[in-house]
Amino acid sequence: RKEVEQDPGPFNVPEGATVAFNCTYSNSASQSFFWYRQDCRKEPKLLMSVYSSGNEDGRFTAQLNRASQYISLLIRDSKLSDSATYLCVVNSGDYKLSFGAGTTVTVRA
Amino acid sequence: DTGVSQDPRHKITKRGQNVTFRCDPISEHNRLYWYRQTLGQGPEFLTYFQNEAQLEKSRLLSDRFSAERPKGSFSTLEIQRTEQGDSAMYLCASSSIWSEENYEQYFGPGTRLTVT
Predict the structure, then answer these.
(1) Chain B residue nearest residue A104, CA to CA
(2) Alpha-carbon gap: A8 to the closest alpha carbon of chain B (Å)
(3) Is B55 an interface residue toward A (CB < 8 Å)?
């Protein structure tokens, strides 16, 4: 079983829509969780850290459910510029990050 | 630009050749990581350094791979006798153990390796 699993999508949504997707992780001892954004052929960029039950940053809301071992990301009022692959990332000990394969989001005009 | 830098950005090599990549982390960051990413997958951890000490290596890092960080600043990743399966994006990241968010890692632009 992979350490981090994500729905690959793609999620194809119109501008202004809300889109949400989850990831699950297998290591119950994981302590730190992140969402990274990756544009085509570019490096991953940190979008949000999720240190407690969840947090919000503008149009982005991340939630963590430790009991069920999943993390979610919700994007409100989608913009064309939100089109990207969103990587779910878990710290699995000793600062090593484990990445999901990514969820592709395409926002259309 | 004070972010993580990597050189070269692209490398095309023939099978069997050796290649070396360089990573310069964010200057105050004492942890440096190497990851590999293939198409359609997330990055996979290869190895990491705290200052000049290499503290962990993934089983993905075969004997043909070696990484160094001799002075605790920049790092090099060498692949000997390259194989077509080595074709991937090699990403470097850095972090600081002194920051509150010391698990947050910041990535460089990557070196895209193509082995022909």
Answers:
(1) B40
(2) 9
(3) yes
CB burial of residue B39 (10 Å; 0-12, 13-18, 19+): exposed
Report the half-sphere exposure of A63 (CA within 13 A, side-chain side).
9
| Structure tokens that stand for A41 in this block | 């052929």
- Summarised one tens digit per residue, pLDDT across range B64-116 is 999 999 988 999 999 999 999 999 999 999 998 766 566 789 999 999 999 99
Q: Which two tokens stand for residue B107?
A: 């990535």
* DSSP at A15: T
- For B91, which residue in chain A has the nearest alpha carbon? A43
CB atoms within 10 A of CB A10: 12
A27, A12 contact by CB (below 8 A):
no
Q: Which chain B residue shows the shortest CA-CA distance from A89?
A: B42
- Kindly write down the DSSP assignment for every residue of B1-59, as one continuous string: --S-EEE-SEEEE-TT--EEEEEE--TT--EEEEEEE-TTS--EEEEEEETTEEEEE-T
Taking CB atoms and an 8 Å limit, are B103 and A95 in contact across chains? yes
CB B94 within 8 Å of CB A95: no
Q: How far apart are CA B61 and CA B49, in angstroms?
A: 14
Residue B1 has pLDDT above 60, yes or no: no
Chain B residues with CB under 8 Å of A41 CB are 112
Decide if B35 contacts B95 (C-beta within 8 A). Answer: no
